[in-house]
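note to self: dont lose this again. the chain is below, predicted strucutre after it. 899 aa total, dont forget to put it in the shared folder this time
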Amino acid sequence: MGEVVRQLMARALSGDRAYPGIVWPVPTRSMPHITAAAVRRLMWLIAAASVAATGLAELRSSRLQATLLSAVARRAQYGVLPGPSDTIRFPQHGPLNVRYGYTRLPVFLQRLHAAGYATMAQARWSSMLLALDRLHVSPPYQPRVPAGLTLLDRHGDPLYEFRQPRRVFRTFEDIPPVVVNTLLFIENRELLESAHPFDNPAIEVDRFVKAMIDTSLHHLAGTRGLSGGSTLAVQLEKLRHSPRGRTDSIAEKGRQIASASLRAYADGPHTLRARRQLVVDYLNSVPLGAVAGIGEVFGLGDGLAYWFGAEVDRVNALLHRAADPAVDRAALAVAYRQALTLLAAVKKPSAFLTRDAGALDARVDALLAALAADGIIPAWLREAARAARVQPGAAIPPRRRSFVDHKAPDAVRIELASTLGVDLPDLDRLDADVTTPIDAGVTTAVTQALRRFRSCRDAANAGLVGPRLLPAVDCERVLYSFTLYERSASGNRLRVQTDTDDRPLSLNEGSRLELGSTAKLRTLVTYLELVADLHHNLAAMPPDALRMKARSAPDALTRWASAYLAEASDRRLEPMLDAAMNRRYSASPAEMFFTGGGLHQFSNFDPDDDGRVLTVRDAFQRSVNLVFIRLMRDVAEHLGNPQAAAILRDARHPARQPLLRTFVELERARTPAGNDAAWLLTTRHKEAQDRAIRIVLEREAFARLHARWRALGYPFDTLVPSYATAIGSSGDNPAALSRLLGIILNDGVQRPFVRVETIRFGAHTPYDTTLARRTEGARVLQPAIAALVRHELVGVVEKGTGRRLKGGVTIDRGVTLPVGGKTGTGDNRFERGATSRVINRTSTFAFTIGDRFFGTVVAYVPGPAAAQYQFTSALPVQVLKHLLPVLRPLLVEAGRERE
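---
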């Protein structure tokens, strides 16, 4: 028969009907007659035997699949190129993809583009990678473990890092051999056999067959128990990339095997290194439930720390010495049982580690017996570990976080979380690298300096103790906030942000504070805007028409502007703005003002100003309240209803009833139902009606004022409809003042305030995407107004309330940078009748340094304790003076860049 086969294989004969072209040899007595059917059966047997032999050889060596799959993986590549990609694809599911944010990248990119970011670079996928994606096969790349949010400062130094897991094995050699052997015994015993260098770690025949049988029975007969058939490679694939981390179909199992196989051959046909890396990745990534106060736990290292309160380095050191006769056996037994407990809990971590400790102990004891029987651990360790009962749940208590040390990175994180539409814990888990313009070194130095001011002794050494400053005792209640931005063509870059309030609240932007006379800066800018508007409307009119308008205009600003232009030889805007700064107002506190719904009397900070008549310029420099109260009255009248005088004069004016109805609705919304003001609609008491109408008219005027302030960065939805808004009654916050200063320094252009310069998602992964902040700006203030206000801010320092910084700051080579700013003090009290209750006290200096740097310094005392302090804006001015040497490196660097 062997000879026949040999001949059949070697000769091509012809003549048989069933097999044309084949000629059979002539039968002889030594060779029995062979039918065609017998030959066909023989050929099928030969083919089957050949396939079986090839398959058996392939199962033993994996050489063929190593060749094919490594070739596929080699072609399944991606490259990062400038600009957005039209070939990138993002995953739809998978716990790791969700946790790292890859599944949400399309939404993130949409939100970031809307917020002013542009895609600068993105991964391009090869045609093979796209083909695999259509087959739902995951890209064959090595995920980053650990991963999480990283914030880098302007020098590339870490400003903030979140890593999950925190405690990882960096290399295979870092893992104690007894842990490796234990893991393989439980999960994948043949994984690291070096005799088969081409082995596919995703497929172990007996496990594969078991998985197929289990899955088939599950779908056909409704049985349970699908786990247990997967290799470590397939388990990792499931835990990372399958929907909800589960295998819910035969197709999903096939996808897991295909993806894991490609990943194993991503670096070539030899897989021993990849198989060792699987052990590292599994031990670093395996989910181990959640611990109260900690959250989700991943990896053996974090599991030891959070479930047992173990010192992980000590545990690893003990386990590395498992074969050392001199090891502390009792300590080793505890360490080994802790590690084995976590490995045994992997199948049902939440149940085993929190609810079913008895079942977990029984499982660990059974494993100890099996491990000893197989020679993985010695008998003495089996007995010692059995005796060493351990109890999961002794988590390391989270250390109290110092909010003071994290104000700058927290500001970046809060902005990012808001932009992306996620909460802070989810933000921290994203695989994202963020560059910021913050200078971590200078920020730390400023924070340390501000903290020292809690000591009255250090505060005195810094010149902060004395009249209008701090008392000689009890300095620790004062909180400080400091922010510094640097102006550039591409935006206003945040360099320093810190405060000493050890709470999540940011004094810089998370609060509405009465910042006192800093509101005069907003009032001045609005006043000059109105003058510029009047110039635009009136400058082309002939003198006679202007004189007539000066006599008939309904408000003081229009009358002044008309009269000025009628006589002006130079009608350009700049001289008119300068003339507006020289308009004079009384500083007398004797007048009563009907504003804010009633009669009010205001006072000046310095009684010496009470008898003066001052220009707007002098009043701004000296921060004189009554001048700005009267200036605000002119602003409100100009923004108000031009028919106001006629409406109030004529009891039958048609506008009165609509205004009264508006007042009634306002009162119904504000007061209990019993205080209905509807009687005003029919009363004959014109004086009562006039009072209500004046309140409504003032509200309307301040609504228009509020729109102007909002256009320049005012952060709140309402203003107090009162002239007292000019001296701070509507509140503000330091961040908003910084935005206004940025507009002024940028010649009236509102440029982006940059806390995030670039965001890179999924670095060195197929989802690699880098975005950067766009630099477009919008003009919101005329350049002439910005230039004038910059000059007036310097005047406050040279001649007014900021004189402690007179002369500016000298940097390298004798270059002096002028310092400008606006001071303000807010003594916030709740007053009812004769009762007055202190709420807080603030003092602020909104400053500029040269033409590039600006920011705010705030001193703040919350609560009734504020009544003990009498500091004024002299305090934040002195704080800035003390901080100038700390800021000098930034100022010098900017000066050198200019050169």
